[in-house]
Amino acid sequence: MAFSLSSFIIVSFVLLTATPYSSASLSPHYYDHTCPRAQEIVKSVVTKAVAKEARMAASLLRLLFHDCFAQGCDASLLLDNKTGSIVSEKGSNPNRNSARGFEVIDAIKSALEEECPQTVSCADIVAVAARDSVVLTGGPNWEVPLGRRDSKTASISASNNGIPAPNNTFQTILNKWQQVGLGLVDLVSLSGSHTIGFVRCTSFRQRLYNQSGNGQPDASLDNAYANQLRTNCPKSGGDNNLFPLDYVTPRRFDNYYFKNILVSKGILNSDEVLFTKSKASADLVKKYAESNEVFFEQFAKSMIKMGNISPLTGSKGEVRKNCRRVN
Ligand code: HEM
Ligand SMILES: *[C@@H]1O[C@H](CO)[C@@H](O)[C@H](O)[C@H]1NC(C)=O
Ligand SMILES: *[C@@H]1O[C@H](CO)[C@@H](O)[C@H](O)[C@H]1NC(C)=O
Ligand SMILES: *[C@@H]1O[C@H](CO)[C@@H](O)[C@H](O)[C@H]1NC(C)=O
């Protein structure tokens, strides 16, 4: 009797806490007994890496997005090329010459393998490192559901097709979010990640010179800001020149990204269309521009949702020993 009552309480508790944002089998306590210091170790390596290079916080945050939008949050992004079996997602259009931070993930993995061998998955490392990066730059904190396993495959086509391009239309971008079970609120709040980090000239040049193939710049880009961008992003050459995504507070995780969009100073086309192509989306941009608190609260919820895209659990996949290759 006592046993069944307490089982009932435990089961109810799990069900209540499992909804609505965590996928049924992931739990923040997943490593409590098998690797209790796991999160502490991730945080210490991330903290050192960000102290060495501030941009690393942005790069690590982006890795979670690019992993989860190709085949789910399964660390498929981390696999290197292997003749005959793996075509690395690192070579996809969104990732090539752009995705970075893999050495930091390797350093975290090495530290964890020393502490508790073959226990903490690479997919979970990416999710925790993303959260730590947000906290370190001044953003919100949240508990990360854990227990993802690592894929034995990668998909460069899923990476090319699933991750939106900066010149995709608003509708195409929204469709790509809906394909993985996320919605408009997630799209707008998580785009707020562009409050930190950098973008290459090649990712927005089209807006400066020839937005619609008529030789004219994008009218939804502020003139003075466009002029300033053109000085270091010429018509040809300088492809890899870097610009802050949020020119006001490039290293601080805050809501300036949204404030910039309101004054036509979102640097990517995919940023500005959130304000110019849909009333519902524009209302969200305004809401987050008005309140850092409201933005932070939604951002944390949406990060958990994104982190729950199609995880491998149970006996699916594996826990890799080295994040760059299958065991
Ligand atoms: C909504 C569609 C999105 C598009 C089209 C997009 C596109 C881009 C592009 C083009 C860059 C610059 C890449 C380069 O020039 O090398 C970038 C950078 C970045 N993106 Fe996004 N992004 C989107 C959503 C997101 C989301 C959801 C997150 C995170 C949750 C994110 C996080 C970042 C970060 C942090 C950077 C800077 C990375 C660094 O400095 O290393 N982005 N994004
Ligand atoms: C992986 O190999 C292919 C050729 O098979 C190459 O095109 C691609 O650039 C390589 N990717 C990386 C990340 O080295
Ligand atoms: C978007 O950018 C890509 C890569 O620069 C380019 O090939 C493509 O034509 C652009 N698409 C549109 C609709 O402008
Ligand atoms: C703008 O792009 C269009 C179509 O891609 C091209 O035909 C045209 O020559 C370009 N114009 C300029 C001024 O670069």
UniProtKB/TrEMBL annotation:
It is an enzyme of class 1 (oxidoreductase). Residues 1-24 form the signal peptide. Binds 1 heme b (iron(II)-protoporphyrin IX) group per subunit. Substrate binds at residue 164. InterPro entries: Haem_peroxidase, Haem_peroxidase_sf, Peroxidase_pln, Peroxidases_AS, Peroxidases_heam-ligand_BS, Secretory_peroxidase. Ca(2+) 2 binds at residues 195, 246, 249, 254. Keywords: Calcium, Disulfide bond, Glycoprotein, Heme, Hydrogen peroxide, Iron, Metal-binding, Oxidoreductase, Peroxidase, Secreted, Signal. Disulfide bonds join 35-116, 68-73, 122-323, 201-233. It holds the Pfam family peroxidase. CDD domains: secretory_peroxidase. GO terms for biological process: hydrogen peroxide catabolic process; response to oxidative stress. It catalyses: 2 a phenolic donor + H2O2 = 2 a phenolic radical donor + 2 H2O. It is found in: Secreted. Its cofactor is heme b; Ca(2+). Gene3D superfamilies: 1.10.520.10, Peroxidase, domain 2. Ca(2+) 1 binds at residues 67, 72, 74, 76, 89. One of its GO terms (cellular component) is extracellular region. Its EC number is 1.11.1.7. GO terms for molecular function: heme binding; lactoperoxidase activity; metal ion binding. The active site is at residue 66. Residues 25-327 form the Plant heme peroxidase family profile domain. Removal of H(2)O(2), oxidation of toxic reductants, biosynthesis and degradation of lignin, suberization, auxin catabolism, response to environmental stresses such as wounding, pathogen attack and oxidative stress. Belongs to the peroxidase family. Ascorbate peroxidase subfamily. Belongs to the peroxidase family. Classical plant (class III) peroxidase subfamily. This is Peroxidase. It comes from Stephania japonica.
